[in-house]
Design a protein that fits this description.
The protein is globular and about 70 Å long. The chain has ten helices and 17 strands. The N and C termini lie far apart (55 Å). The longest helix has 29 residues. By secondary structure, the chain is of the alpha/beta class. A hairpin with a 2-residue loop joins strand 16 and strand 17. The strands form two sheets. Strands 3, 4, 5, 10, 11, 12, 13, 14 and 15 form a nine-stranded mixed β-sheet that branches. Helix 1 runs parallel beside helix 3 and helix 7 packs antiparallel against helix 8. It binds flavin-adenine dinucleotide (FAD). Flavin-adenine dinucleotide binds next to helix 1, strand 3, strand 13 and helix 7.
Length: 379
Amino acid sequence: METNNPPKVYPCAIIGGGLGGLCLAIQLAQQGMEVVLFEKNSYPQHRVCGEYISMESWDFLTELGVPLADLQLPIIKQLGISAESGFMLQSSLALGGFGISRYSLDQYLCLLARSKGVTVLENCKVNDVKAADDQVSVIHTSQGHYFAQLICGSFGKYAPNFAKPSHPISKNSPNYIGVKYHIQADLAADRIELHNFQDGYCGISKVDKDQYCLCYLSKASNLQQAGNDLKTMEERVLYKNLWLKKYFTQSTFLYDSPLVISNIYFHPKAAYLNGMFMLGDAAGAITPLCGNGMSMAMRASKILADLILLYHCGEIDKTALANRYITAWKANFNNRIWAGQYLQLLFGKKQSTQLALKTLARLPALTQRLIGLTHGLPF
Ligand SMILES: Cc1cc2nc3c(=O)[nH]c(=O)nc-3n(C[C@H](O)[C@H](O)[C@H](O)COP(=O)(O)OP(=O)(O)OC[C@H]3O[C@@H](n4cnc5c(N)ncnc54)[C@H](O)[C@@H]3O)c2cc1C
């Protein structure tokens, strides 16, 4: 006789296996929770990211089990920011950061998640999430249906249809493209440089395996004006900053072609939406100028993991979980996102960027304060 077994219901499902999703999964699994994580691509994978991680996340990643200290990673303590004219602001970084490629880091985290018992489903795209009843949601994926009590959205900056942001993108929001190369370059290992150009900026710093990450953000209009040809845009726009011309013409480029993403917006989002807990860029992307989106994703995973564990052992209900997470998210990140948006206004403009950098060069205490606004304390 055929029996209809009830479907397996996971206590927690995580949509998206970038830094936010993988770190959340590992923390929950470490405390004995059964977790399924859906990742639409496979590991290892390159991502458009500057790959500079604020030191605030070093202890967290190490405690999670990533052997950072054994990887001989570059520790970055010096910052240079240039204007298009070539003027360069020099500053030390009080907290600083380290460099590691997302190719290496996400792969470490995926292996770690699996070793802790997380069910990581690669090449598995989530297409929809619907309430099955008032306790359980059904997750429609490219590999079938799954059921879970809690749903966490860590799908990054592009919201899928089932999790469209509550604030539609304003027509005035600038649209950016992101481009990344791995190169071999002549730059000290302990230094990160940010070079401004018209309507954009480019970061360069060392990562693992003796490579450098060169990654830039540009308004999409620059590319359109160059006939949608990246090389033409780089030569016409980025090369006006002679520092960038030097890196582009005197470095060894290690990919056949760069990694490019488009339609990047920095607009407000929600930490809790349609019954889902959002983290990382899905909850709110910070301008990469602040160099700290990865640490924000990891910090949010810690906040959310601690609250989910309280819910899981019955200490709080789902409403309290949502309220406490929204409050904690705002307390931890609103100021940083705000600082990032205002700092971004100063950059990528010929005159105001130069003026701002020359002013800051005379006011090192203010420079340190501004850098401090974009970095958090270790967690
Ligand atoms: C140009 C640029 C430079 C940057 N430089 C830095 C930097 O130097 N330092 C820094 O700290 N931050 C930087 N950032 C920001 C940083 O990359 C992000 O903040 C960080 O990656 C966010 O992590 P996340 O886990 O939220 O999302 P992601 O790392 O983007 O991961 C999201 C994952 O979800 C998966 N996914 C999406 N939709 C689905 C679906 N429907 N089903 C299943 N899986 C799905 C994706 O494939 C992806 O793997 C930069 C960003 C840009 C654009």
